[in-house]
Amino acid sequence: MRGVISWMRHTPRWTVAAVCGIAAVLLFVGASAHVSDLLRHGLYPYDWAPGWLNLYWSSLALFDVLAALFLIRGERRGIDLACAIAVTDLAANGYAVYGLQHSDLAAQPGLQRLTVFAAIVLATAPFVRRHLDRGDALCS
Q: Which residues, other chains included, contact 15 with Cβ-Cβ below 8 Å and sequence gap of 6+?
């Protein structure tokens, strides 16, 4: 355990910047999908989903962008928000796929991509967060 903590503390800045950059790009991709849905169908783009779920997905048009901007600026709250989005979006989509559509992961490429995104964000968050917690600038 001591080695892991030491490695987290000494994660190179370029690695942290790369992780933040990749996560930001993926968050912008998600935001663009949510903005597109909003523009084409309004706040409730999926008639098969309950209103609260539609509103959650529509809110990601804002929260995905915020998380991406915070990450680009090297702010710790960016990785915190990205983790919250990853967990809640995975739960919401899992509920939609399994509970509402009676489908499964193998039949849903969108859920597959979201699962990979969540795994990457959650696995790298301790390294990124610890580095940003020290107050280091990413681009200096």
A: 127
Contact yes or no for 32/42 (Cβ under 8 A): no
pTM of the model: 0.84
Alpha-carbon span 60 to 36, nearest angstrom: 12
**pLDDT tens string 18-38:** 989 999 999 999 999 999 999
* Residue-wise pLDDT tens digits, 36-95: 999 999 999 999 999 999 999 999 999 999 999 999 999 999 999 999 999 999 999 999
